[in-house]
Specification:
mainly alpha
Amino acid sequence: MDIKTFESKLAELNLSKKEFATMVGAVYNGVINWNSKGETPKWVDSWLENYEKAKSYEAMRDQVFRIEKIK
């Protein structure tokens, strides 16, 4: 994934590079250094995809819980 796409995806997911680094157990400066390479490591694509799916699942789960409490 190129850096512009990475940064765009982080913004879409409401994550900063620092938060991302903490979540994946990476050194923040290492994440920043990806800029010099112009791309992210290959695992980042799938990690972000899975993170996005997990957030969607949690949102649906929370909605179901709210509905169930109404009934």
